[in-house]
């Protein structure tokens, strides 16, 4: 139904804007698919990703399954401090922007940090870069999902 995203090239500060643009194109393509197959939850979420009044910055996106997305709040290129929010159970593209989930929670953290330390060059990364387990599934009883996600998160943190 939703195709796999193309492999993401290595990202440097010089290629960051190109990466954001490429990911925005992937989101638009997934939105077209969601509209074509009448996937209303996904259409709603992806429309919010690309039609927000501010330009959103996504490092990666994968529409398959419950979805994966990595969003940057702030200026990653010039940040003195970077926070990474890694969500727990029940996160998906459909609820990503809700206040208690990855995107909404990251925006709240970003706003609070800027209010607490104005002038600090801060970026917050909302990292839904793995298949978050459902809280009513047996997957929450083990560390398997976290262990599977760790190499991908480690690559992000060391680039």
What can you see in these coordinates?
This protein is of the alpha+beta class and 159 residues long. It has one domain. 38% of the residues lie in helices and 16% in strands. It is built from 4 helices and 4 strands. It has a 4-stranded mixed beta sheet. Strand 1 and strand 2 form a beta hairpin. Helix 1 packs antiparallel against helix 2. The protein starts with 15 loop residues before the first helix and ends with a helix. The mean pLDDT is 93.
Offer a concise description of the structure.
The chain has helices at 16-36, 40-50, 102-116, 144-157; strands spanning 57-62, 68-74, 81-85, 122-128. With 159 residues, it is an alpha+beta fold.
User: Average pLDDT, to the nearest integer?
Assistant: 93
How far apart the termini lie comes to 32 Å
Summed up, the domain count is 1
Number of helices: 4
Bulk shape: globular
Q: How helical, in percent, are the residues? A: 25-40%
Q: Supply Rg.
A: 15 Å
The SS-based structural class is alpha+beta
Largest sheet: 4 strands, mixed
Low-pLDDT runs: none
Compute the number of strand runs: 4
Succession of helices and strands: HHEEEHEH
């Amino acid at each position: 139904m939703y195709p796999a995203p193309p492999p993401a090239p290595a990202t440097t500060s010089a290629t960051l804007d190109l990466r954001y643009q490429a990911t925005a194109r992937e989101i638009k393509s997934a939105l077209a698919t969601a509209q074509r197959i009448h996937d209303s939850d996904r259409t709603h979420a992806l429309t919010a990703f690309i039609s927000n009044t501010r330009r959103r910055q996504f490092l990666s996106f994968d529409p398959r399954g419950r979805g994966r997305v990595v969003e940057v709040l702030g200026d990653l290129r010039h940040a003195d401090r970077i926070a990474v929010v890694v969500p727990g159970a029940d996160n998906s593209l459909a609820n990503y922007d809700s206040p208690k989930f990855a995107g909404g929670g990251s925006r709240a953290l970003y706003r609070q940090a800027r209010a607490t330390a104005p002038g600090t060059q801060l970026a917050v990364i909302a990292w839904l870069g793995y298949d978050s387990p459902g809280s009513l599934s047996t997957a929450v009883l083990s560390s398997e999902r976290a262990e599977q996600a760790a190499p991908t998160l480690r690559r992000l943190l060391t680039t």
